[in-house]
Design a protein that fits this description.
The protein is an all-alpha fold. It contains ten helices and no strands.
């Protein structure tokens, strides 16, 4: 049957998740072009975010002189989450237009987001995250929970409505686009380099450690949080490869991020969210070796439970192979 020359590449047959970007329309120059277009779009996103922050600050009575632009805590929280969420259309555009493949190949080996599995992963993530959050509250020196005010209620609503999009955006970028970008570099040759790049190790390592490396470059004196971010990122990347899709990574990211930001708001530390000091490493405010232990425990328990669920329900790890 004749197919259109402009049709997107189909899902590669019999491949693990990290290799799905190397379809029939893959060319040697596609990875480089993907990076250039992504950088170009991210620059315009940054400009748009700065412009939005300036407009909101001016509407709130801030001045334009250097150092005088100020945003309210709720506005900063909302703009930060929305700007991250806007990575979703950017990543999908790169996948569909630059890499010329179906956007479903970014989501799983089945070519779409597996909603039932995602819902189950969210439920599994809730258990270890709830335990570590409870331990954090017990180990805290003092209770800092505030009464529910109008501003607090708005902050909670912002988190509930926007964190899911922010979580999906980061996983599309780090565990999706980046992981498949690295996995596609390995060709079909027999050289040692090609075999290494085809293996899941480099893709998992790059996908799991990039955000931690960026954090370390900004906060070099906080190795514990860097280590915790590495644990959680690498765990999410391994689960993406092991389950053949982004659902497990999204589930952990969503639940953990929701718990972190909720605690920040309830403890009247909304302003700290934008600093990066509470990102990723277990419950906010609990850094050091305890925060790392929480990250290891949460990721380990979640990985075991998701692996068990995936095996029990027959979640596909490789793309389908044509029959006949």
């Amino acid at each position: 049957m004749r197919t259109s020359e402009f049709a997107p590449a189909e899902v590669p047959e019999g491949e693990f998740y990290h290799r799905l970007a190397r379809g029939s329309r893959y060319r040697w120059w596609v990875p480089a072009l993907s990076l250039v277009v992504l950088a170009f779009l991210l620059f315009f996103l940054w400009v748009a975010v700065v412009l939005a922050m300036t407009i909101v600050a001016l509407a709130g009575g801030s001045g334009l002189s250097p150092g005088s632009v100020r945003l309210g805590e709720i506005a900063s929280l909302a703009i930060g989450l929305v700007s991250t969420a806007l990575l979703i259309p950017i990543v999908l555009l790169v996948v569909r237009v630059v890499q010329w493949r179906r956007v479903g190949t970014l989501m799983s080996v089945d070519g779409h987001l597996r909603w039932a599995f995602l819902v189950r992963c969210v439920g599994l993530a809730a258990v270890p995250v709830a335990v570590t959050t409870a331990l954090y509250m017990v180990l805290s020196d003092e209770s800092r929970m505030g009464a529910m005010s109008g501003g607090l209620a708005v902050s909670v609503l912002v988190i509930v409505f926007l964190v899911p999009f922010q979580s999906v955006a980061e996983e599309f970028t780090l565990r999706g686009l980046l992981m498949q970008w690295v996995g596609a570099l390995g060709g079909t040759g027999k050289s040692a380099m090609a075999r290494v790049l085809r293996s899941p190790g480099p893709a998992i390592l790059a996908s799991g450690t990039l955000f931690a490396a960026l954090y370390a470059s900004v906060y070099p004196d906080d190795p514990w949080t860097t280590a915790a971010l590495t644990v959680m990122g690498t765990g999410a990347a391994w689960l993406t490869w092991r389950t053949g899709g982004l659902e497990a990574a999204i589930g952990l990211h969503l639940v953990n991020g929701m718990a972190q930001l909720m605690l920040c708001v309830l403890e009247d530390r909304t302003a700290a969210i934008g600093t990066g000091l509470v990102i990723g490493a277990g419950p906010p405010g609990m850094g050091g070796p305890i925060g790392l232990a929480f990250a290891v425990g949460t990721t380990g328990v979640y990985a075991l439970s998701v692996t068990w669920l995936a095996r029990r329900t027959g979640v596909r790890r490789k793309s389908r192979t044509a029959v006949g």
